[in-house]
Structures are given as structure tokens and as C-alpha cells.
Write a structure and sequence with these properties.
The chain is of the alpha/beta class. The protein has 14 helices and nine strands.
Length: 349
């Protein structure tokens, strides 16, 4: 655990300063992101589809869970879109690199279906298409290395587009900025300078070391659990999975019931004050029934007065924890070389 309190060793392993970027995340919510080629008239929209992969899809999941809009909202992580997509569907294609092949393919499919199209991109072919074809778009600034740590930027870009299409009121940005203000000093709680014995993020990382991390949440925070999974995967280069209640009780629950009892997992419950009382009861009963059959769960109680604050609080804690775990694992948290190698292989004829 001493390594997590040694700034020199942290600097040597965290070469891109992933931990520093985690502390800066609240500031992303305060950026003014302009919608270019904003629609002059408000079209008739019956359904919303966000198409993207990884962190880009995660921002869509979180937006859907938080806003709970009164019209169907689906996040698609695929090369093609559902058959219902048509002229009354708003398709938001999102990719920080702008070159994600699944997203570019889904964009082509959206065009063939006559859908309304908007773009959120950092650069690349997706941004070029928006500019060339005069599509509504938002440029998402990021460091070029860790788009997963710019979820707040992605979230704001999506909101700006929904506001432009009059699907949400502009006042929602006030809630976003208020949440940012409440989290702006989070580095003083989880940052490198905070010693292990006082730092929950370092302690959670230590608890995960050498294990597969498993995250559970209620349906309102399923995207928060997924954020933890992908953060552990990418920053710590560590296996992880996630599930949600009450679906967990209908299948995975039984998977814990058999031997061996000593399982190499670290189990985490993401608990929220916004959980339905029946979901809260399921957490409690499930943990009691599984006592002695799996490692004891660690409860992460999401902090914040609103769902949005709890989402963002959880998101930043996940980035801090996973970066610290990467350092414990002896890997650089920021780069994802195996993913880049896969992309290179896929690009070959």
C-alpha cells in the first residue's frame, strides 16, 4: 500500500497523469460547448437513439437513466440500428476519435433510414462528415488518449444537442453546473496527496488488487455500475463485471451459491438514496443469503443530493480507484495498447 503514498512511484507509472485528470473532471461540466448548424426549426421527434461504443455509449446510458424522458431512448452499440429508426428518430452519433467503425457504420444506416442526425465528436471522419454535410454537431475537446475520462464533456455535449432540438429545457444546464460546483474540490478527498489511511479511493483499489471486481446497482444506476466495470478494465487492465438488481436475483444470484467458497472476487454494492425500497430490500436479503458463499460485499454509498450528483460522484471515484489499481498492478492507467492493436488488425484488408 506504500506505493500509493509515494508521489515518485506514482509519477513513474502514471505517465499521462490519469489521476490528475480525474480531479479535473468536474470542470468539464462548466465548458460551453456550442452546437454548430443548429436546427432552425424543431422537427417532430418520436424516438431518440444514441449510437456509440465504450465511454461514448456510457454517456448515453447515463443521460437516459438520469433524464428519464417521456419518449423512447435507446443506446445502440452495434454496426446497425433498429428497424424502427426512421424520419421521426433523432440519431446522435458519438465518438471522441471520430473513427469508431461501428459508429460510422450506424451513421450510414441512419442515413439510409432517413433519420434526423446529429453528431458529437472530438475529431476524425465523424466530425468531417458533420462539417461537410451541414449536420448539427458539437465538438468534444479531450486529451486524445483517455476519452473514458471525459464522460462529463460527453454528457454536456449530449445535453446541448437535446436542448437544440427542444427535447429538454436549457435550465437543465444549471443542475449540471451546480453538480460541478459541489464536486470541484474532490481532489482534496481522493487525490494523490491524500494518504492511504484517509483516502477511500486508494483503499478501494487496495481491496481490488489481485481480484476480479464485481459491481451491483439498482436499475436507476445500472450505468454507474457499468462505468466502474469499464474503468477497472481500461485503467487497471483488470477483469471486472457488473449486473443490476433485480435481474441479478433471477440468475447470477445462483452462480454464487456453489463452491469453491474462497472465490477471487471483490464484490461492491452501489447503493443510492434514490433506489426503490424493494431494490434496497433485495440488496439486504441477497447479501444475507449469500453470506459465507462469496466474499463479503463492500458498500459504496453514492453521495449527492440529486441523481446527477450521485452519478458524477460515482464516475470520478471510479476513475480515481481504477487508476490507483493500475498503479498497484504495475501498469500505466491511461494507454490502452491492446485496443489500439485490435483496431490496427481490423483495419487490415
Amino acid at each position: 500500500m506504500d506505493i500509493l503514498d509515494d508521489p515518485n512511484q506514482i509519477r513513474q507509472r502514471d505517465t499521462k497523469n490519469a489521476l490528475g485528470m480525474a480531479g479535473e473532471e468536474p470542470k468539464q461540466l462548466l465548458q460551453r460547448l456550442e452546437v454548430q448548424n443548429s436546427p432552425e426549426q424543431t422537427p417532430h421527434i418520436e424516438t431518440i437513439v444514441v449510437t456509440g461504443m465504450g465511454g461514448s455509449a456510457l454517456a448515453g446510458d447515463m443521460l437516459r437513466d438520469w433524464l428519464d424522458l417521456p419518449l423512447p431512448f435507446q443506446v445502440v452499440k452495434d454496426y446497425v440500428l433498429p428497424k424502427y429508426v426512421g424520419p421521426s428518430t433523432l440519431v446522435i452519433a458519438c465518438s471522441f476519435s471520430g473513427n469508431t467503425e461501428e459508429t460510422l457504420s450506424a451513421l450510414s444506416d441512419a442515413r439510409s433510414k432517413g433519420a434526423l442526425i446529429a453528431i458529437a465528436a472530438g475529431k476524425g471522419k465523424l466530425l468531417e462528415t458533420a462539417q461537410t454535410d451541414g449536420l448539427p454537431y458539437v465538438v468534444m475537446p479531450y486529451d486524445g488518449v483517455t476519452p473514458r475520462m471525459f464522460l462529463a464533456t460527453n454528457l454536456r455535449a449530449f445535453l446541448e444537442l437535446l436542448i437544440a432540438y427542444k427535447l429538454v429545457d436549457a435550465s437543465v444546464l444549471l443542475e449540471l453546473e451546480s453538480a460541478a460546483s459541489n464536486l470541484i474540490d474532490i481532489e482534496k478527498v481522493w487525490g494523490v496527496a491524500v494518504p492511504f489511511k484517509e483516502n477511500p479511493a486508494k483503499q478501494l483499489a487496495w481491496h481490488c488488487a489481485g481480484k476480479t471486481a464485481v459491481f451491483y446497482a439498482g436499475p436507476r444506476f445500472r450505468s454507474a455500475a457499468y462505468k466502474w466495470k469499464i474503468a477497472i478494465n481500461e485503467s487497471a487492465k483488470n477483469t471486472a463485471w457488473c449486473d443490476e438488481y433485480s435481474e441479478f436475483n433471477h440468475n447470477e444470484f445462483m452462480g454464487w451459491a456453489s463452491h469453491p467458497v474462497e472465490k477471487p472476487f471483490a464484490v461492491f454494492d452501489l447503493r443510492s438514496s434514490f433506489d426503490d425500497p424493494r431494490i434496497a430490500k433485495r440488496f439486504e436479503i441477497s447479501n444475507r443469503l449469500l453470506s459465507g458463499l462469496r466474499p463479503k460485499e463492500t458498500t459504496i454509498t453514492l453521495e449527492g443530493e440529486t441523481m446527477l450528483e450521485q452519478f458524477l460522484w460515482s464516475n470520478i471515484l471510479a476513475d480515481y480507484t481504477s487508476a490507483y489499481l493500475g498503479i498497484l498492478n504495475g501498469v500505466d492507467p491511461a494507454p490502452v495498447p491492446l485496443i489500439e492493436k485490435l483496431k490496427q488488425e481490423l483495419a487490415k484488408p
